[in-house]
Amino acid sequence: MASIQRWFGVLIATAGVTLLAVPLASAAPPSVPWKAVSANSDWHCSDYVSPYNADGLNFKSCVVVNAHDDALGVLVVQNPTNAARTIKGAIRLPQLGGDVNCAETPLQPGFTRGCYSTTKSLGCAHCTGPVNTHLFVWDGSGWSESLDDKASEWTGYC
């Protein structure tokens, strides 16, 4: 009986050490690529804003809602300048979920690109809640962050 208890104790101790050695999964949102933008009547957007640190770039926050009450957030960035700029971003939908990080990419002159969050069902609420978008622009020595202030006041789509 004592040897069974001793064996069981060693088994429990080994399992505990093994569990402590396993790293926990990261809670970071997935990173997604930028895509072309083709807005229609399903798109509900804030106005474009020009961040002080983006040298002519414009960006806005959008919510796209389809006929099935599925929704997603979109960070839209346009580059009306004559120079490529390196950007990345983030979309946070605190009420709806589906947060994403937008991959680092060069935005060519004259292009408009969107970063799309995960599509989520609105369910019974029929409301997305707030949409928080962050644009990061490489300024040659570091990343400058801009929050769409108008979008942070905007409550999304209801």
Salient structural properties:
single chain, 158 residues, alpha+beta, six-stranded antiparallel beta sheet, five-stranded mixed beta sheet, 2 helices, 11 strands
Structural class of the helices, strands and pairings?
Answer: alpha+beta
Mean pLDDT reading:
78
Q: Main beta sheet: strand number and arrangement?
A: 6 strands, antiparallel
Number of DSSP strand runs:
11
Radius of gyration over C-alpha positions, nearest whole angstrom:
22 Å
List low-confidence stretches.
7-25
Tertiary shape: globular
Considering DSSP H and I runs of 4 or more, what fraction of the residues is helical?
Answer: 10-25%
Helix segment tally = 2
Spell out the helices and strands N to C: HEEEEEEEEEEEH
Q: Strand share of the residues?
A: 35-45%
Straight-line N-to-C gap: 66 Å
Oligomer: single chain
